[in-house]
Amino acid sequence: MSKENEKAQNSAEKAMTYKAMTARYKLAMKHGFLYEAMLHGQTILEDRLDAFLWAAGVIAEPDGTSLGNRRTRPLLTEIICKYTETAKPAPLRSIGGKTAAVRALLLFANDTPAPEDRYLAALAEGLRALDIDALLAVLAQIDNWRSYRNTLLHAAPNKDIYTVTEDLAHNAALVGDLADALNDAARALGRRTKIRLAARMPKNK
Fold first, then answer.
1. H or E stretch including 187?
2. Which residues of 31-44 are buried (b: 16+ CB within 10 A; e: fewer)?
3. Is-contact 7 62, C-beta < 8 A?
4. Which end of the chain, N or C, is less surrounded by CB atoms within 10 Å?
């Protein structure tokens, strides 16, 4: 495997990768390379979703893709399946799976004021301290952004290129706003270290 394709080995490397990707995104936007900005956009949004899921105790590692641990996996599986109306959670390897998991947690926190489980109680308390309605709107925007990006990348050859790209500038610029909103929420949730402690996960990256 080439070094460029290796995963970040620790939180410092992951932070450096995110910083570099954000810089490339901003450079692409500055010079009008909107297709490139869209390409970097998905990586940026996935990274911020990962940060949120880490703070929520859903993933053990900053770039993890496994749902919870032995203690929390059954609880998280039940929540995600309930609020996504699926038989099993979508894999956390994709932006769609990550978005679905975050949305399910927010809906759970809205519906369950006082969970009996210690981890779920700490999680619900932390999530309710956020602006849940605003975050749900952000997730809806991410869903729309993903749909547009898929059309742009996969369906453009079969469509009028001017029709496909008329919203390109808006969607490319939207990445920054969505990432900022996710970042603010992840930081606020991350300050509630008792969530990960209750999940029996390390509180520091």
1. helix 168-190
2. eebbebbbbbbbbb
3. no
4. N
